[in-house]
Write a structure and sequence with these properties.
There is one protein chain. By secondary structure, the protein is α/β, with parallel strands linked by helices. It has a single domain, classed as Aromatic amino acid hydroxylase (Phenylalanine Hydroxylase), CATH 1.10.800. The chain contains twelve helices and six strands.
């Protein structure tokens, strides 16, 4: 997980509020409506139902407290701004407390289509609609609990499960493959690519395969895993995931489907 950023995070005031500039609100507005339209076409009903429930303002960056009010009513979750990218320990601890950490900056206009690190648009537009769903909220909480119990050397292996489900997972709905993950929902370029591109590989979700699949954060994913439904995701909360991680470590990683680079996970 990256823990350094070239962006400057905003710090909330004594009331927990962040003051964004007119330009930052304008970037949010530029991103929101086109991505909402893409989401209606490519994203799962799970995501679109959550987005509707949150009733986000398309013209301004919402405060975390506003989003938390909706999430508390739906699933008991809340959102908190974080000053910078955080490490695994802090990330898993927050999820285990049903708190989602939201980066407080928004991307520049030079990186509208794809950003290598999470910004407030990714966090709020991409993640919080999913956390309005009880099954995904429970799965995310379970990931946090597992991460808090896991050995430090297992954190990156558990992160792959989160990556290929909550971040870049696909799901089958009414016989069609739809995007589930927040990384897809918030990316103008990767969302249609994941669903339509003949270059992308899509294969059935398998826990061991997911744990053994390396990924890169700076490219469109060459491989996506397809859940058959949220029941399959929820079943993972009753599965010995940490035991599966130990098995996956013994088997080793699959060969990557991308060119080598230093920033691998």
């Amino acid at each position: 997980m990256k823990t350094s950023s070239r962006y400057q995070a905003h710090k909330p005031n004594a009331q927990g509020l962040i003051s964004y500039s007119a330009e930052e609100h304008s970037v949010w507005q530029t991103l929101f409506s086109p991505q909402q339209a893409q989401a209606k076409q490519y994203c799962s009903q799970v995501f679109n139902n959550g987005l509707a429930r949150l009733a986000l303002d398309p013209a301004r960056i919402p405060q975390c407290a506003e989003v938390s009010q909706h999430l508390q009513q739906a699933t008991g979750w809340s959102v908190t701004p974080v000053p910078a990218l955080i490490g695994f320990d802090r990330f898993y601890q927050l999820l285990s407390s049903r708190i989602f950490p939201a980066a407080s900056f928004i991307r520049s206009r030079e990186e509208l289509e794809y950003l290598q690190e999470p910004d407030i648009f990714h966090e709020i537009f991409g993640h919080t609609p999913l956390l309005a769903n009880p099954d995904i909220a429970e799965f995310s909480h379970h990931i946090g609990v597992l991460g808090s119990q896991a050995r430090p050397e297992d954190h990156v292996w558990l992160a792959r499960l989160y990556w290929f489900t909550v971040e870049f997972g696909l799901i089958r709905e009414n016989g069609q493959i739809k995007a589930l993950g927040a990384g897809l929902a918030s990316s103008a370029s990767e969302l249609p690519y994941a669903i339509e591109s003949p270059q992308a590989r899509r294969q059935p979700f398998d826990l061991l395969d997911v744990l053994r699949t390396p990924y890169r954060i700076d490219i469109h994913q060459p491989l996506y895993f397809v859940l058959e439904g949220l029941d399959q995701l929820l079943e993972l909360t009753r599965t010995d995931v940490l035991g599966a991680i130990h098995h996956a470590r013994a088997l080793g990683l699959h060969a990557p489907l991308f060119a080598p680079k230093t920033a691998l996970n």
